[in-house]
Amino acid sequence: MYLFNSEVVKNQKLTQNIFRLRLKAANDFCRAATPGKFVMLGSDDGLFDPLLRRPFGICRWGSDWFEVIIKVVGRGSSQLSKFEKGVSVAVHGPLGNGYPNNNPKNDQKTLFLVAGGMGIASIASYLFSALDRNQSLAGTFLFYGAANYSELILLNELTAADAFGLQLQTITDDGSCGRQGLVTQLLTHELQSRPQSQVFACGPEPMLKSVQKVLLEADCDGYLSLENRMACGFGVCLGCVQTMINKDDDANVKTAKVCTQGPVFPARQVIF
Question: Within a domain: residue 35?
């Protein structure tokens, strides 16, 4: 992992309160980035206000840049969302462990990607990584749910991935795009005909709990990217710990640090 001062290359407004920041990065940083990893970002103005950096999934990266998606929810994210081209940003990362390597075309297993709300930033990292490597997405489904059409960010770019074989289905709370309902409804329906599939999911905790329930009932393997609050990003503060089943002893439980041992975990191990 790297600790450095970066520079904003571009700030794109996606919705009223969601922004995409592109930041400069060294080639070594970009080579270390993999789908599902994250960075801690903060102001580099020397005032340390707010004191703590904020975690953001690495959505996409190139040879000398990376992108994050920022939704304004508090003072830290609000500050970052206003940074214009040329502003210096403190970066720590890439951090954590991402999604396992998976190529449905090679292992003949269908891959279901399940994204709820801002969870699309993490899920999109898998898709963008595949697209940037010209990897086929045949056998890959994306189930993307949000409150309404305006909250379905990156939709145009993700829709274009159908040329690589991606099958995209959207669902919204109000029915303004795709079906009306919850994203887990799409997963439940498709798992009935493809029970041996693998699932990667990221979104708010209630959604992840529902995904886990669907997977357990279908006896299907999957991975959940948790969005626990964290302060340090490297395992010192213990603010992001999650209760887990001890895989070495099912009768006992343990705690895991989401920042260093996750944020991606096998769905069967997480205890909500």
Answer: yes
